[in-house]
Design brief:
- Keywords: Acyltransferase, Glutathione biosynthesis, Hydrolase, Transferase, Zymogen.
- Belongs to the gamma-glutamyltransferase family.
- Helices cover about 35% and strands about 15% of the residues.
- The chain is an alpha+beta fold and about 600 residues long.
- It has one domain (about 5-285, about 405-545, about 555-590): Glutamine Phosphoribosylpyrophosphate, subunit 1, domain 1, CATH 3.60.20.
- Strand 8 and strand 9 (about 295-300) form a beta hairpin.
- Helix 7 runs antiparallel to helix 11 and helix 14 packs across helix 18.
- The protein is globular.
- The relative contact order is 0.20.
- It binds glutamic acid.
């Protein structure tokens, strides 16, 4: 097992190679100790041991944000309060991943009522958007970055409204006070992290197209550097407005107008977002998707995310197989995980989209008999040669064509447990690293609309995840809360585009089946198979499985796998937290 304990610290050359191809690449562990609090957390992370605590814990992608959340929790705030403080800081110090210009999904387990629910703060397409949004004059799909950079890809942001809704529902702390850390850091400056500096430098050409983004990220034409103090007074002013007058201020009035002008005025690639679109934005409460797994309930985000259903299907298909007996070094275990994932992804591509717009067989896809039928396909000795979507029970004809959305990884995951027994799991994004590259009022605007399928039809058959006015693009974000006897046992989630699903499923299997603590489970090398190619994490012990998997019939590719898992386990001994060695996050608890 020891060999499996460390994917951390990819060799520098491997990282360099990865940086060139992935928008948000991995970074090594251990930087930016802001105070004693995060220094201790970073020591634990570097040593590969989980952080332990009794009362509360926060595990997020950046030490400044973790500390802001920890201060709120230590002062008696709830997980919802802490999330507001964390998100406000992340929007400053990790602007490439999430912020006020983006969207998010939040799972909440309520300590008092024992209920689990979700908030959908996903971006929405403008009312004027239609099936040709991402097609060129010849009806062909645009190239990914031609669609992304500029106004065309920008959906109505959901994150500000989500912060407000979560606070109104579950907060105890004074709203305005939750922004004080972020405002102070924006005004006085924060130290640019290695990761932010590396990503700005790698994206300089695209970031430089918007004059506002250029002057912030590339002052005097040079990318902001690691270790540099960076101030964002415009962001501070926006946060002061939100703190004083509420998040609605992003949706109506001066800030909304500025967003709309920016999108519509984007040179070369304008969008159609309007003030009406902004003012109509709504956060939607939805039931979680919960699937039983080895005596637990794995609860996740339903449509418009594919996260909960696809993670649920993978685990559901694996339920019949004794992974614990096989262990994490067994090619047979990974054959099953990889092909369960391919089967689930086939259903995802065919059936999953915004269920407010297209009928989605949510129950049928994770119904026990259906999953058992799909799992029967795995009873063989070698990799599946062909993978087709299944036919889940549904009272509606399901004649959809397969989707072709491209998702490249950025995004951030927030896991929080508070001293009242509440658990929060939220994945938050502006989609691609630096989103649309348009900056306004101190934050970047998302490019979430490129999560729609660029093609609306295939051979005359509509795609479920096609662009429609007011629709939310299908997501892969998989904020998850695993329950045991109705109580939270694991809070987990990750960025990583559609590989999020594999990262989260792996972490759950590692923790539940293979008995790993959360830090080991997060660190465990990744092997992800979505569409046929088995991605094996570069520079990790998983490489040893490459040949055995090939022998089973898989195509194998070795590559950097850029997760950002943050997990908190809850057990009889209290809380244990793990932060992904592939990014800069930490867990802090007390
Ligand atoms: N936009 C993606 C989604 O909603 C997330 C991108 C990422 O994780 O990097 O699924």
């Amino acid at each position: 097992m020891a060999v499996w304990a460390g994917a951390a610290g990819l060799p520098a050359r491997a990282q360099e190679a990865a940086d060139a191809v992935v928008p948000e690449a991995a970074t090594e562990t251990g930087q930016q100790a802001i105070s004693g609090m995060s220094a201790a957390a970073q020591e634990a992370k570097a040593a590969g041991v989980p952080v332990t605590a009794q009362d509360w814990m926060v595990a997020v992608a950046n030490p400044y944000a973790a500390e802001a959340g920890a201060r709120v929790l230590a002062a008696g705030g709830t997980a919802a309060d802490a999330m507001v403080a964390v998100q406000a800081v992340l929007g400053l110090v990790e602007p490439q991943s999430s912020g006020l210009g983006g969207g998010a999904f939040l799972l909440w387990h309520d300590g008092e009522s024992g209920e689990t629910t979700t908030l959908d703060g996903r971006e929405k397409a403008p009312l004027s958007a239609g099936p040709t949004l991402f097609l060129d004059q010849d009806g062909q799909p645009l190239k990914f970055f031609d669609a992304v950079v500029g106004g065309r890809s920008v959906g109505v942001p959901g994150t500000p409204a989500l912060m407000q809704t979560a606070h109104a529902r579950w907060g105890r702390s004074d709203w305005a006070g939750l922004f004080s850390d972020a405002i102070r850091l924006a005004e006085e400056g924060f130290i640019v992290s290695p990761r932010l500096a590396m990503l700005v430098a790698a994206d300089a050409e695209r970031l430089g197209r918007d004059p506002v983004a250029r002057s912030y990220f590339l002052p005097d034409g040079h990318p902001v550097a690691e270790g540099q103090l960076l101030r964002n007074p415009e962001y501070a002013a926006t946060l002061r407005t939100i703190a004083g007058q509420g998040a609605r201020q992003v949706y109506v009035g001066r800030i909304a107008k500025a967003i709309v002008e920016k999108v519509q005025g984007a040179e070369g690639n304008p969008g159609r977002l309007s003030e009406l679109d902004m003012s109509l934005y709504d956060v939607i409460e939805r039931a979680p998707v919960c699937v039983p797994y080895r005596g637990h309930e794995v609860c996740g985000m339903g449509p418009p995310s594919s996260g909960g259903l696809t993670v649920g299907q993978i685990l559901g298909l694996l339920s019949d197989f004794d992974l614990a007996e096989m262990g994490p070094e067994s090619a047979e275990a990974w054959r099953l995980i990889g092909d369960a994932s391919r089967l689930a992804f086939a259903d995802r591509g065919r059936y999953m989209a915004d269920s407010d717009f297209v009928p989605v067989p949510v129950k049928g896809l994770v119904e026990a008999d259906y999953m058992a039928r799909r799992a029967a396909l795995l009873r063989r000795d070698t990799a599946l040669s062909e993978v087709e979507p299944g036919e889940p029970e549904f009272d509606h004809a399901l004649n959809w064509a397969d989707d072709d959305a491209i998702e490249l990884p950025s995004t951030s995951h927030i896991s929080i447990v508070d001293s009242y027994g509440n658990a929060l799991s939220m994945t938050t994004t502006i989609e691609n690293a630096f989103g649309s590259r348009l900056m306004v009022a101190g934050f970047l605007l998302n490019n979430e609309l490129t999560d729609f399928s660029f093609r609306s039809h295939r051979d005359g058959v509509p795609v479920a995840n096609r662009v429609e006015p007011g629709k939310r693009p299908r997501s892969s974000m998989a904020p998850t809360i695993v329950l045991k006897d109705g109580e939270p046992a694991l809070v987990v989630g990750s960025p990583g585009g559609s590989r999020i699903i594999g990262y989260v499923a792996k972490t759950i299997v590692a923790h539940i089946d293979w008995g790993m603590d959360v830090q080991q489970a997060v660190t465990l090398p990744h092997l992800v198979n979505r569409f046929g190619t088995y991605d094996v994490e570069e520079g990790s012990a998983a490489a040893a499985l490459g040949e055995p998997l090939k022998a089973l019939g898989f195509n194998v590719e070795t590559r950097a796998l850029n997760s950002g898992l943050h997990a908190i386990a809850l057990g009889e001994d209290g809380l244990t937290g793990g932060a992904d060695p592939r990014r800069e996050g930490i867990a802090i608890g007390e």
